[in-house]
Specification:
Blueprint lengths: L3 E6 L9 E9 L2 E11 L4 E2 L4 E2 L6 H24 L6 H9 L7 H14 L3 H18 L11 H13 L5 H20 L29 H9 L5 H15 L5 H5 L6 E2 L2 E5 L6 E5 L2 H8 L24 H26 L9 H10 L5 H8 L4 H8 L5 H11 L2
Antiparallel strand pairs: 1-2, 2-3, 4-5, 6-7, 7-8
Length: 404
């Protein structure tokens, strides 16, 4: 597919409320941006004719500059096509502008965020955008070269994130993972020498802290199931939680995307959103009862079972993402009040349904079967996950020593 370039006004205002002019380079539906270095008011931009309006005091000189810039870029694009160079949008940008060693960390970070947005990986985009923000707060300037990101820089960053911003060790490690990803990308693009790589066993190590995964017991789940005097919202939240638990800890985003057409032959068929894995499971009697309570709102087989996405603009990934995020928060708020009524001391969220399944499964189910139920791509992931809930051997060993 051929590449193309266009002058655009980026919707990212500076502190003065002015918007940057940039050249957008697109290849295979992926875009990257080269900023021209001038900012204007959004009212001074003629989007239809792609030019600065006469209302801007320097419209003539700016339009002349824009014409010159886009002309040079188009000539360079034609030259690349003549050479039959099959490059990505970012590679084209680097070659056109001879970026190389002049590219900064935040330029690559913005390209990374743009790629996530184009790929509709909005959850990852939300997280990585926040991590980039913390790095900017620490450095206090967008002019951060990869040469500056050394062991000393990373150690000071980690201390600041912990002491000033009170981030958890897990969040700090996630920020280091993002830094490492972009550093590797910079090495690949020959922006920085691999000899300066600051990560590794003898340098900065990325090691996530062990976390405690707490699930509910059978007796606690029975308390939730038998609990009365719940509000309509609380009953709905419990239904969603039980739906998740009974399908091996199905993720909330997949549950709320479930349609009536996914249920046939007394089985539930669905494709996991995280890794697109298919699964077919028998519908437990408890879930058949839950489903019956939602049938009165069914309009067609293609309708969503649960109401949260029924009014979403399915052609707008951001709207779907926001509605899923809002729904998860509301459901977790209801679960909090339910557990208080049930007298359960543990913190219960939608994700705890997955931990609860693992807790009760323990070592009773073969890891290969659990891998299928969890929809893990790698058996090692299942084994690592399930070790959080297997305590019998350690308990027996302890008893052998102390029981005298």
């Amino acid at each position: 597919m051929s590449s193309n370039a266009k002058i655009v006004l980026r919707k990212k205002p500076n502190r003065k409320g002015l918007y940057p002019l940039a050249i957008r380079i697109t290849k295979n539906r992926r875009s990257t941006y080269q900023y021209i270095g001038h900012y204007i008011d959004i009212e001074d931009w003629d989007k239809k004719n792609i030019r600065v309006k006469k209302s801007h005091p320097n419209s003539v000189s700016l339009n002349s500059l824009l014409s010159q810039e886009i002309s040079e870029v188009n000539k360079s694009l034609i030259a690349l096509q003549v050479k039959n160079k099959d490059a990505s949008a970012n590679q084209i940008k680097n070659e056109l502008y001879n970026l190389g060693k002049n590219s900064t960390f935040f330029e690559l970070a913005n390209e990374h965020l743009d790629d996530l947005k184009l790929s509709n990986k909005l959850n990852r985009l939300s997280c990585d955008k926040a991590w980039v923000g913390f790095i900017l707060k620490f450095h206090k300037s967008k002019q951060l070269t990869f040469q500056e990101i050394d062991e000393r820089f990373l150690k000071k960053l980690m201390i600041t994130l912990k002491s000033i911003h009170s981030l958890s060790d897990t969040s700090i490690m996630n920020i280091l993972v993002l830094l490492r990803l972009l550093y590797n990308r910079a090495i690949k693009q020959k922006i920085i020498s691999k000899e300066l790589y600051p990560f590794g066993s003898d340098k900065i190590r990325i090691k996530f802290p062990e976390t405690t995964k707490v699930g509910l017991t059978i007796s606690e789940i029975k308390k939730l199931q038998s609990l009365e005097n719940l509000t309509f919202r609380e009953i709905h939240a419990r239904n969603i939680w039980l739906f998740s638990f009974n399908f091996a800890g199905m993720r909330i985003s997949d549950i709320l995307r479930t349609r009536w057409s996914d249920i046939y032959d007394q089985r539930f068929h669905y494709r996991m959103g995280k890794n697109s894995k298919l699964l077919s499971l028998k519908i437990p009697d408890k879930i058949s009862v839950v489903l019956e309570s939602y049938k009165m709102d069914k309009k067609s087989d293609d309708d969503f079972i649960f109401p949260e996405l029924k009014k979403a603009d399915l052609n707008n990934p951001k709207d779907v993402f926001n509605k899923l995020k809002t729904a998860n928060k509301k459901l977790n708020d209801c679960l909090k009040s339910i557990t208080i009524k049930a007298g359960i001391k543990k913190k219960v969220t939608m994700h705890i349904a997955r931990h609860s399944f693992g807790n009760i499964a323990g070592d009773k189910i073969h890891p290969r079967i659990l891998q299928k139920l969890y929809r893990h791509s790698d058996l090692k992931t299942t084994l690592n996950y399930q070790t959080n809930f297997i305590h019998q051997e350690a308990d027996d060993a302890l008893e052998e020593v102390i029981n005298f």
